[in-house]
Design goal:
By secondary structure, this protein is α+β, with helices and mostly antiparallel strands. It folds into three domains: 100 residues, Rossmann fold (3-Layer(aba) Sandwich); 68 residues, Dna Ligase, domain 1, CATH 3.30.1490; 242 residues, D-amino Acid Aminotransferase, Chain A, domain 1 (2-Layer Sandwich), CATH 3.30.470.20. It contains 15 helices and 23 strands. The protein has an eight-stranded antiparallel beta sheet, with helices on both faces. Helix 4 runs antiparallel to helix 5 and helix 5 packs across helix 6. The chain is globular.
Length: 454
């Protein structure tokens, strides 16, 4: 199949990102929009626009029937789901295939295999990839016994979860029941699935992920990323390659990710997330995100590849163009997420109208955003405003470029995290590299610009 018309089942900066590649490839784009996005930058840039429904995600971007009907009626041959919304829903991929649409992503079976976190752990073990000690619990009594076995602190996670939702840290047996009830309620609300499982919590850990790409026959990796700077399991800064790893450890992590992808006979782009225990030097499988990631630009920067174009190539049925030994990764790249949130009010989302939007330009600077002066930021969707991506020959040069790029940005009219990111980029801990997931919460305790719950 040669793709000529593509339906984009998403919004915001990822919709624009897909459009840019399609324009370069000569592929027409059809954008499905909610009522809130009819006048968005992505809507104005698309070749065709189709209304999906009301502003609420459940009535538009999360409505499988509405999206599939719109895609079919538009004459599109394929659907790109972006990230979030329906991107990892096996039922959506299956509905696309049943309607004769190519789903640009993994197969429905693969989405189901890794979308269920317990199933994903089983596949990781089958592929010879170590997993964090833990397991599922069907009752409080089972959870208590398992918690005693794996030890405190521990994490409660949603089986169908992602993005930190349905996740609770537990430091003692006295906290367990309340944490389980809260995690199950949040998981049910977010995913319609209240199942949970328990994992040992690694206090001094780093979040290392590997970008993989497969054609359904074989897989390759495109290097590592470090996403350890997180607040409540939400990433703020990502970089590639992951700094402060020995060559041997990096190779082991990358090989493990490819083993899992090969075991699944994976089709498309995916990210294998690992937890590196800094105390022991061991790494463990966390989960696999079967879609393009928010942080994919840093991998593009060090690989020289257009990952959306590679997704399209695989979806067209073409094999991978290279062997692992053919791929060359060079330089360093860092991405900062700028969100419409107020650090002074515990990062409360801040919808409103952008009075001024000015972003950095220059060599080694890339900005992925759907925001412009006068844009309305609604309360219905994710608070991401822009991604500031910088690249350089080495990490030190890239950190310097990041501080310069952030200082050149100006966002007025709504509270946002730009000032926070400037302070983080200038911190000595970040300059050194290799911080753990415990870094940001501790740093926020000292930073005067944030309100941190005690």
């Amino acid at each position: 199949m040669i793709l000529r018309r593509l339906f984009i089942a998403n919004r915001g900066e990822i919709a624009l990102r897909v459009q840019r590649t399609c324009e370069r490839l000569g592929v027409e784009t059809v954008l499905g929009v909610s009522d809130a996005d009819r006048n968005s930058v992505a809507a104005r840039r698309a070749d065709h626009v189709v209304r999906l429904g009301a502003a609420a995600p459940a009535a538009s971007y999360l409505d499988i029937d509405a999206v599939v009907r719109a895609a079919c009626a538009s004459g599109a041959q394929a659907v790109h789901p972006g990230y979030g919304f329906l991107s990892e829903k096996a039922a959506f991929a299956a509905a696309c295939e049943a309607a004769g649409l190519v789903f640009i992503g993994p197969t429905p079976a693969q989405l189901a295999a890794v979308g269920d976190k317990l199933s994903a752990r089983g596949h990781a073990l089958a592929a010879g990839v170590p997993v964090v000690p833990g397991g599922s619990a069907a009752s409080f009594e089972e959870a208590g016994a398992l918690a005693a076995e794996i030890g405190y602190p521990l994490l409660i996670k949603a089986v169908a979860g992602g993005g930190g939702r349905g996740m609770q840290r537990v430091d003692s047996p006295a906290e367990l029941r309340f944490a389980i009830d809260r995690a199950m309620a949040e998981a049910q609300a977010a995913f319609g699935d209240a199942r949970i499982y328990l994992e040992h919590y690694v206090a001094a850990g780093r979040h290392i992920e590997v970008q993989v790409l497969g054609d359904g026959v074989r897989s390759v990796h495109l290097g590592t990323r470090d996403c350890s700077i997180q607040r409540r399991f939400q990433k703020l800064i990502e970089e590639a390659p992951a700094p402060s790893l020995t060559a041997a450890l990096r190779a082991d992590i990358e090989s493990a990710a490819v083993r899992l992808a090969d075991h699944l006979r994976y089709r498309g782009l995916g990210t294998v997330e690992m937890l590196l225990d800094c105390a022991s030097g061991r790494f463990y499988f966390l989960e696999m995100n079967a879609r393009i990631q928010v942080e994919h630009p840093v991998t593009e920067a060090i690989s020289g590849l257009d990952l959306v174009a590679e997704q399209i190539r695989v979806a067209e049925g073409r094999p991978l163009r290279w062997r692992q030994s053919d791929l060359r990764l060079a330089g360093h790249a860092i991405e900062c997420r700028i969100n419409a949130e107020d650090p002074a009010r515990d990062f409360q989302p801040c919808p409103g109208t952008v009075a001024r939007a000015r972003f950095a330009v220059g060599a080694g600077i890339r900005v992925d955003t759907h925001i412009e002066t006068g844009a309305d930021i609604t309360p219905f969707y994710d608070s991401l405003l822009a991604k500031i991506i910088v690249s350089g020959t080495d990490r030190a040069a890239t950190v310097n470029r990041l501080t310069t790029a952030l200082s050149a940005c100006d966002l007025q009219g709504i509270d946002n995290t730009l000032v926070l990111q400037r302070a983080l980029a200038a911190s000595p801990e970040f300059a050194m590299g290799g911080v753990t997931t415990a870094f940001l919460p501790q740093w926020l305790e000292r930073w005067p610009g944030s309100a941190v719950p005690r």
